[in-house]
Amino acid sequence: MVDRLVNSEANARRIAMVESCFGSSGQPLAEQGRVLVGEGVLTKMCRKKPKARQFFLFNDILVYGNIVINKKKYNKQHVIPLEEVKLESLKDEGQYRNGWLIRTASKSFAVYAATATEKEEWMAHIEKCIEDLLRKSGKQPPSEHAAVWVPDNEAAICMHCKKTQFTVLNRRHHCRKCGSVVCGPCSSKRYILRGQSDKPLRVCLQCYDELNRERARPNLPPTANTTPVKTDAAGSGGDSSADEDSDDDDDRVNAEEKHDEPKFYGDSDKTEETNNHSSKDSTK
Protein backbone atom coordinates (compact mmCIF):
# COMPACT_ATOMS: atom_id res chain seq x y z
CA MET A 1 0.00 0.00 0.00
CA VAL A 2 2.73 2.47 0.99
CA ASP A 3 4.80 1.78 -2.13
CA ARG A 4 1.79 2.54 -4.33
CA LEU A 5 1.17 5.85 -2.59
CA VAL A 6 4.76 7.13 -2.88
CA ASN A 7 4.22 9.04 -6.11
CA SER A 8 0.48 9.63 -5.84
CA GLU A 9 -0.97 13.09 -6.27
CA ALA A 10 -3.20 12.59 -3.23
CA ASN A 11 -0.18 11.87 -1.03
CA ALA A 12 1.63 14.98 -2.26
CA ARG A 13 -1.42 17.12 -1.54
CA ARG A 14 -1.79 15.72 1.97
CA ILE A 15 1.85 16.35 2.87
CA ALA A 16 1.63 19.90 1.49
CA MET A 17 -1.47 20.45 3.64
CA VAL A 18 0.35 19.26 6.78
CA GLU A 19 3.23 21.62 6.03
CA SER A 20 0.85 24.54 5.55
CA CYS A 21 -0.93 23.81 8.85
CA PHE A 22 2.37 24.08 10.74
CA GLY A 23 3.39 27.15 8.73
CA SER A 24 6.82 28.67 9.21
CA SER A 25 7.11 27.12 12.68
CA GLY A 26 7.46 23.62 11.21
CA GLN A 27 10.17 22.00 9.13
CA PRO A 28 9.61 20.85 5.51
CA LEU A 29 8.10 17.36 5.40
CA ALA A 30 8.00 16.58 1.67
CA GLU A 31 10.80 14.16 0.79
CA GLN A 32 11.31 11.61 -1.97
CA GLY A 33 9.63 8.35 -0.96
CA ARG A 34 7.80 9.77 2.05
CA VAL A 35 4.14 8.82 2.49
CA LEU A 36 1.53 10.15 4.89
CA VAL A 37 0.02 6.96 6.31
CA GLY A 38 -2.51 8.44 8.72
CA GLU A 39 -3.45 11.30 11.01
CA GLY A 40 -5.60 12.05 14.02
CA VAL A 41 -5.82 13.44 17.54
CA LEU A 42 -4.34 11.56 20.49
CA THR A 43 -4.22 12.58 24.14
CA LYS A 44 -0.59 12.93 25.19
CA MET A 45 0.38 12.63 28.84
CA CYS A 46 2.32 15.84 29.48
CA ARG A 47 4.16 16.95 32.60
CA LYS A 48 1.21 18.82 34.10
CA LYS A 49 -1.82 17.03 32.66
CA PRO A 50 -3.09 15.08 29.60
CA LYS A 51 -3.45 17.27 26.52
CA ALA A 52 -4.78 16.81 23.00
CA ARG A 53 -2.12 16.70 20.29
CA GLN A 54 -2.39 16.26 16.54
CA PHE A 55 -0.36 13.30 15.24
CA PHE A 56 0.72 12.54 11.68
CA LEU A 57 2.12 9.10 10.86
CA PHE A 58 4.44 8.92 7.86
CA ASN A 59 6.18 5.81 6.61
CA ASP A 60 9.48 6.97 8.17
CA ILE A 61 8.63 9.56 10.83
CA LEU A 62 5.99 10.38 13.44
CA VAL A 63 5.08 14.07 13.70
CA TYR A 64 2.97 15.73 16.35
CA GLY A 65 2.14 19.24 17.45
CA ASN A 66 -0.06 21.44 19.59
CA ILE A 67 -3.52 22.21 18.23
CA VAL A 68 -4.11 25.94 17.71
CA ILE A 69 -7.07 25.61 15.33
CA ASN A 70 -8.18 22.04 14.67
CA LYS A 71 -7.40 20.89 11.10
CA LYS A 72 -6.13 24.38 10.25
CA LYS A 73 -3.20 25.40 12.42
CA TYR A 74 -0.66 23.58 14.60
CA ASN A 75 2.57 24.61 16.30
CA LYS A 76 5.35 23.15 18.48
CA GLN A 77 6.18 20.57 15.82
CA HIS A 78 8.01 17.44 16.97
CA VAL A 79 9.51 14.97 14.48
CA ILE A 80 10.42 11.45 15.64
CA PRO A 81 12.30 9.01 13.32
CA LEU A 82 10.38 5.74 13.41
CA GLU A 83 13.57 3.67 13.37
CA GLU A 84 14.14 4.90 16.94
CA VAL A 85 10.61 4.09 18.18
CA LYS A 86 9.47 1.21 20.34
CA LEU A 87 5.81 0.84 21.33
CA GLU A 88 4.56 -0.63 24.58
CA SER A 89 0.88 -1.18 25.28
CA LEU A 90 -0.53 0.13 28.57
CA LYS A 91 -3.22 -1.54 30.65
CA ASP A 92 -6.40 0.44 31.25
CA GLU A 93 -6.29 2.12 34.64
CA GLY A 94 -9.05 4.37 35.95
CA GLN A 95 -9.67 7.25 33.57
CA TYR A 96 -6.60 6.38 31.52
CA ARG A 97 -7.71 3.90 28.88
CA ASN A 98 -6.63 2.81 25.39
CA GLY A 99 -3.05 3.95 25.91
CA TRP A 100 0.46 2.97 24.91
CA LEU A 101 4.01 4.23 25.33
CA ILE A 102 6.05 5.75 22.53
CA ARG A 103 9.68 5.14 23.53
CA THR A 104 12.79 6.65 21.95
CA ALA A 105 16.36 7.17 23.13
CA SER A 106 15.80 10.90 23.65
CA LYS A 107 12.19 11.07 24.86
CA SER A 108 9.44 8.68 25.91
CA PHE A 109 5.80 9.42 26.66
CA ALA A 110 2.31 7.93 26.90
CA VAL A 111 -0.55 8.60 24.50
CA TYR A 112 -4.21 7.60 24.67
CA ALA A 113 -6.76 6.99 21.91
CA ALA A 114 -10.48 7.63 22.25
CA THR A 115 -11.42 3.96 21.79
CA ALA A 116 -9.84 0.52 21.90
CA THR A 117 -10.34 0.19 18.14
CA GLU A 118 -8.47 3.42 17.47
CA LYS A 119 -5.64 2.23 19.72
CA GLU A 120 -5.37 -1.01 17.76
CA GLU A 121 -5.34 0.88 14.45
CA TRP A 122 -2.68 3.35 15.53
CA MET A 123 -0.40 0.72 17.03
CA ALA A 124 -0.77 -1.65 14.05
CA HIS A 125 0.06 1.07 11.51
CA ILE A 126 3.03 2.40 13.49
CA GLU A 127 4.42 -1.11 14.07
CA LYS A 128 4.08 -1.92 10.35
CA CYS A 129 5.98 1.22 9.37
CA ILE A 130 8.76 0.46 11.88
CA GLU A 131 8.99 -3.15 10.66
CA ASP A 132 9.26 -2.08 7.02
CA LEU A 133 11.92 0.54 7.81
CA LEU A 134 14.11 -1.83 9.79
CA ARG A 135 13.78 -4.54 7.17
CA LYS A 136 14.84 -2.20 4.37
CA SER A 137 17.71 -0.63 6.30
CA GLY A 138 18.96 -3.79 7.97
CA LYS A 139 19.31 -1.86 11.25
CA GLN A 140 18.53 -3.20 14.69
CA PRO A 141 15.98 -1.47 16.94
CA PRO A 142 17.51 0.65 19.74
CA SER A 143 18.12 -1.18 23.01
CA GLU A 144 17.96 1.83 25.36
CA HIS A 145 15.14 4.34 25.72
CA ALA A 146 14.53 7.48 27.73
CA ALA A 147 12.41 7.17 30.86
CA VAL A 148 8.76 8.16 30.85
CA TRP A 149 8.31 11.13 33.17
CA VAL A 150 5.97 10.70 36.13
CA PRO A 151 3.29 13.43 35.88
CA ASP A 152 3.59 16.24 38.43
CA ASN A 153 0.20 15.54 40.00
CA GLU A 154 1.23 12.00 40.93
CA ALA A 155 3.90 13.20 43.35
CA ALA A 156 3.05 15.53 46.25
CA ILE A 157 6.41 14.79 47.89
CA CYS A 158 9.87 13.92 46.56
CA MET A 159 9.95 10.32 45.29
CA HIS A 160 13.59 9.96 46.42
CA CYS A 161 13.80 11.27 49.99
CA LYS A 162 10.06 10.82 50.70
CA LYS A 163 10.19 13.96 52.85
CA THR A 164 10.27 17.18 50.86
CA GLN A 165 6.82 18.54 50.03
CA PHE A 166 6.58 20.48 46.79
CA THR A 167 5.60 24.13 47.03
CA VAL A 168 6.10 27.29 44.99
CA LEU A 169 9.64 27.44 46.39
CA ASN A 170 10.36 23.71 46.47
CA ARG A 171 9.83 23.00 42.80
CA ARG A 172 9.38 19.65 41.15
CA HIS A 173 12.17 18.28 38.97
CA HIS A 174 12.46 15.10 36.92
CA CYS A 175 15.31 12.61 36.91
CA ARG A 176 16.24 12.14 33.26
CA LYS A 177 17.30 8.55 33.90
CA CYS A 178 14.29 7.09 35.77
CA GLY A 179 11.64 9.79 35.26
CA SER A 180 10.87 10.21 38.98
CA VAL A 181 9.66 13.52 40.43
CA VAL A 182 12.37 14.73 42.83
CA CYS A 183 13.32 17.80 44.83
CA GLY A 184 16.36 20.00 44.14
CA PRO A 185 18.74 18.48 46.72
CA CYS A 186 17.84 14.94 45.60
CA SER A 187 18.67 15.83 41.99
CA SER A 188 21.78 17.94 42.50
CA LYS A 189 23.94 15.70 40.29
CA ARG A 190 24.35 15.68 36.52
CA TYR A 191 25.19 12.86 34.15
CA ILE A 192 25.75 12.77 30.42
CA LEU A 193 23.14 10.40 28.98
CA ARG A 194 24.34 10.06 25.40
CA GLY A 195 21.01 9.06 23.93
CA GLN A 196 19.33 12.18 25.30
CA SER A 197 21.93 14.93 25.15
CA ASP A 198 25.63 15.69 24.93
CA LYS A 199 25.22 17.99 27.94
CA PRO A 200 25.01 16.83 31.57
CA LEU A 201 21.39 16.22 32.57
CA ARG A 202 19.69 16.23 35.95
CA VAL A 203 19.53 12.80 37.61
CA CYS A 204 18.43 11.72 41.06
CA LEU A 205 21.05 10.62 43.58
CA GLN A 206 20.04 6.97 43.30
CA CYS A 207 20.43 6.89 39.52
CA TYR A 208 23.71 8.82 39.79
CA ASP A 209 25.14 6.15 42.10
CA GLU A 210 23.84 3.33 39.90
CA LEU A 211 25.33 4.90 36.76
CA ASN A 212 28.69 5.28 38.47
CA ARG A 213 28.64 1.66 39.65
CA GLU A 214 27.75 0.50 36.15
CA ARG A 215 30.56 2.55 34.67
CA ALA A 216 33.07 1.09 37.14
CA ARG A 217 32.28 -2.54 36.31
CA PRO A 218 35.24 -4.32 34.66
CA ASN A 219 34.97 -5.40 31.02
CA LEU A 220 31.80 -3.38 30.61
CA PRO A 221 31.90 -0.39 28.26
CA PRO A 222 30.34 2.73 29.83
CA THR A 223 26.94 3.77 28.51
CA ALA A 224 27.50 7.37 29.58
CA ASN A 225 30.13 9.75 30.98
CA THR A 226 29.72 11.61 34.22
CA THR A 227 29.94 15.35 34.83
CA PRO A 228 28.65 16.13 38.33
CA VAL A 229 27.40 19.68 38.92
CA LYS A 230 26.15 20.94 42.26
CA THR A 231 22.92 22.94 42.48
CA ASP A 232 21.35 24.79 45.37
CA ALA A 233 18.52 23.46 47.52
CA ALA A 234 15.89 24.93 45.23
CA GLY A 235 17.36 22.99 42.35
CA SER A 236 18.25 26.00 40.22
CA GLY A 237 20.44 24.97 37.37
CA GLY A 238 18.76 26.12 34.23
CA ASP A 239 17.14 22.81 33.36
CA SER A 240 13.93 22.73 35.38
CA SER A 241 11.26 20.32 34.22
CA ALA A 242 9.08 23.18 33.03
CA ASP A 243 11.81 24.42 30.71
CA GLU A 244 12.40 21.12 28.95
CA ASP A 245 8.95 19.70 28.27
CA SER A 246 8.50 22.08 25.35
CA ASP A 247 5.07 20.84 24.25
CA ASP A 248 3.55 21.13 27.73
CA ASP A 249 2.17 24.62 27.18
CA ASP A 250 0.17 26.65 24.66
CA ASP A 251 -2.84 24.44 25.36
CA ARG A 252 -5.65 26.08 23.40
CA VAL A 253 -7.81 23.01 22.76
CA ASN A 254 -9.48 21.09 25.57
CA ALA A 255 -8.26 17.49 25.73
CA GLU A 256 -11.84 16.39 26.38
CA GLU A 257 -13.15 18.06 23.22
CA LYS A 258 -14.74 15.66 20.75
CA HIS A 259 -12.48 14.94 17.79
CA ASP A 260 -12.97 13.13 14.52
CA GLU A 261 -11.81 9.54 14.25
CA PRO A 262 -8.26 9.08 12.95
CA LYS A 263 -7.89 8.57 9.23
CA PHE A 264 -5.53 6.05 7.67
CA TYR A 265 -4.96 6.18 3.94
CA GLY A 266 -5.15 3.08 1.80
CA ASP A 267 -7.35 1.76 -0.96
CA SER A 268 -9.38 4.97 -1.06
CA ASP A 269 -6.40 6.64 -2.71
CA LYS A 270 -6.67 4.38 -5.73
CA THR A 271 -10.28 5.42 -6.24
CA GLU A 272 -9.40 9.07 -5.75
CA GLU A 273 -6.56 8.93 -8.24
CA THR A 274 -8.74 7.12 -10.79
CA ASN A 275 -11.49 9.71 -10.43
CA ASN A 276 -9.02 12.57 -10.81
CA HIS A 277 -7.57 11.13 -14.01
CA SER A 278 -11.05 10.41 -15.36
CA SER A 279 -12.07 14.02 -14.72
CA LYS A 280 -8.99 15.29 -16.52
CA ASP A 281 -9.64 13.02 -19.51
CA SER A 282 -13.26 14.16 -19.79
CA THR A 283 -12.21 17.81 -20.03
CA LYS A 284 -9.85 17.21 -22.92
From TrEMBL:
SMART domains: FYVE, PH. GO terms for molecular function: phosphatidylinositol binding; zinc ion binding. Residues 252-284 have a biased composition (Basic and acidic residues). Gene3D superfamilies: Pleckstrin-homology domain (PH domain)/Phosphotyrosine-binding domain (PTB), Zinc/RING finger domain, C3HC4 (zinc finger). GO terms for cellular component: early endosome. Residues 216-284 are annotated as: Disordered. Residues 35-131 form the PH domain. Residues 152-212 form the FYVE-type domain. Residues 241-251 have a biased composition (Acidic residues). Keywords: Metal-binding, Zinc, Zinc-finger. It holds the Pfam family SOS1_NGEF_PH. GO terms for biological process: endosome organization; endosome to lysosome transport. This is Pleckstrin homology domain-containing family F member 2.
